[in-house]
Task: structure prediction
Amino acid sequence: MSDSANTHIQLQFKFKPGFMLAAIFLLTGCSSSPGKLQAPDVLPECGWLPNCINTQSGQGIQASEPISANAEQWQQLKAWIARQEDWEITIDDSNFVHAVVKTPTMGFRDDVQLLFLPGEQLIQVRSASRVGLSDLGTNARRIETLRDQLKP
Result:
């Protein structure tokens, strides 16, 4: 085998581990928990990854409609969330709830934030995956599940 062929094979091998690390990083983009509200009555924005839905500030594939609810329905929804085995409420500040949801298949931890605006009778929701570039529709389905809890 010629020296140039050996060099080519060696270069291909040397770049594969770096390529693999870059591919893993790109395919598993991750974020941390958004925590408390940064401003009153405003949920954190989603950012650039398509693994988040925000009824308050989402645009395009990150958008959804807020949930219509009165104060009694807000309390009912909070009680429903508290009963879910795979949901853990980490913050409950009257009109704001932050819950961490463990996905059933892979056990990933996702963040769900709900902000009740009593004057508007709306619940704004932000649901975001911590891991991965795409959520495969999980966050949109989660918001619809929340919405379904308030249907008669």
The chain has three helices and six strands. The beta strands are 52-54, 67-68, 87-93, 96-102, 109-117, 122-129. Helices lie at 3-27, 71-83, 138-148. Residues 1-30 form one domain.
